[in-house]
Amino acid sequence: MKxxxxxSLLFLVCMSSLAQTATIKIDVDxxxxxxxxxxxxNFTEHLGHCVYQGIYDPSSSCSDQDGFRTDVLEGVNxxxxxxxxxxxxxxxxxxxxxxxxxxxxxxxxxxxLAWGAREDNSFGTxxxxxxxxxxxVQPYLCVNLGTGTPEEAAHWVEYCNCPTxxxxxxxxxxxxxxxxxxxxxxxxxxxxxGPWQIGHKNAADYSKIALETAKLMKWTDKNIRLIAAGSSxxxxxxxxxNRTVINTLADHADFISLHNYEGNTNDDYYAFxxxxxxxxxxxxxxxxxxxxxxxxxxxxxxxxxxxxEYNASYNSKGDNxxxxxxxxxxxxxxxxxxxxxxxxxDVVKMANMAQLVNLLGPMMTTKDGIWHQTIxxxxxxxxxxxxxxxxxxxxxxxxxxxxxxxxxxxxVSASYDPSKKVMVINVVNRCKDKAITTCxxxxxxxxxxxxxxxxxNGDSPKSMNSLDRQEVKVVEQSLKIKGHxxxxxxxxxxxxxxxxxxx
Length: 503
Fold this sequence. Notes:
The protein is of the alpha/beta class. The protein has 2 domains: 142 residues, Immunoglobulin-like; 274 residues, TIM Barrel (Alpha-Beta Barrel), CATH 3.20.20.80. The strands form 5 sheets. Strands 1, 2, 15, 18, 19, 20, 21, 22, 23 and 24 form a 10-stranded mixed beta sheet that branches. It has an 8-stranded parallel beta barrel with strand order 3-4-7-8-9-10-11-12, surrounded by 5 helices. Helix 3 crosses helix 4, helix 6 packs parallel to helix 8 and helix 10 packs parallel to helix 11. The relative contact order is 0.16.
């Protein structure tokens, strides 16, 4: 298994006592893997005004003739979102897709048992597909393996992907959509290992129904790619769950999903900064399980990780979740998640921030407008600039102590895109109150003479945005490079992306 060598050293405080020192060394001959743009994907669920009053709001003056919020579509474009997961989430485990097709006046109103709400089904499959086309994103559908059946899932594939001439394809045509949607990515249920989930199952029972569902779905369309539900219940035997799922679905699943949310509920800044290291641990262990299945002859094709739910979270539910406001601390945690995915580019080939708008989203809507949460900006920078080959960074950094362990102040990822002749270095300075003067070293002798640094920060870790104020924003500056080194002062509690032109 590939590992990043991150060496953390405590350096002497500068004479002024205002800054500490660090070193980052970057070498293009130390590749990790190709970065898949799908790691910058997103997620929508029927919860907390993410769908209704979020992406879809016919009553809003900000919506087009189809009821889609145009300001949200503009935000999706700014975030360069490649793919969106729908309809859940926990909602998917009680959702029957046929309730959401056909004339809207004839669609049933159902009880949403996942979130204790009513679902009028006015936004269903065809609406989501139309929205995806307007947003220029790929759809990712999650089938119901809580109360649903393998046959129901296969019929959904037929409705979406098959040419006319069969029952459900003809039904799609009848409702105004003769051409297939050609949905590639399909999730085999959501968080089925969690006791909070509708249709909760143990590993053996889930794997059995997921296997039969996968068979029927791929018999319906052999070109689809399937994401098996990995564990999200880390208080249980999650490793054995993932092992069972990988081994059982080895011949049918293309991905195994992972979920993780971290929150600062105890108001412990440094513990919060260290929390995403658990995400790294879960990825490494799951990668080892995939490799073990290959060695044992159970897995004969590539299987990757889809980290299809992640974010900072305070575990709010219902309407309260729609009102959550992120601060600068949360933006740093999101940037660290993205660093982690880039550093594991060889095995993490999809990641989906939860969620796109409202709820825990980077965008928040009002009746008449939209504003950007603090977490919008790191995702925007990564999704627009960090592509190509992920590189192993060598990091020498001061440390902080949290949870009884030492952690490097600097959390770093790097990429090199030879087609665009740009190297990108993403740095989170987790130190709360000190800048870190850092020598960034070009070990490959490919740098040009110019660079741009984009820094996301606010006056304090508690800085936040709202409709009326923007305490956290992006500040850009041009840099000149001399020789093979760049000296940069990373501000306290900040995320900075340095983009360097190459020869």
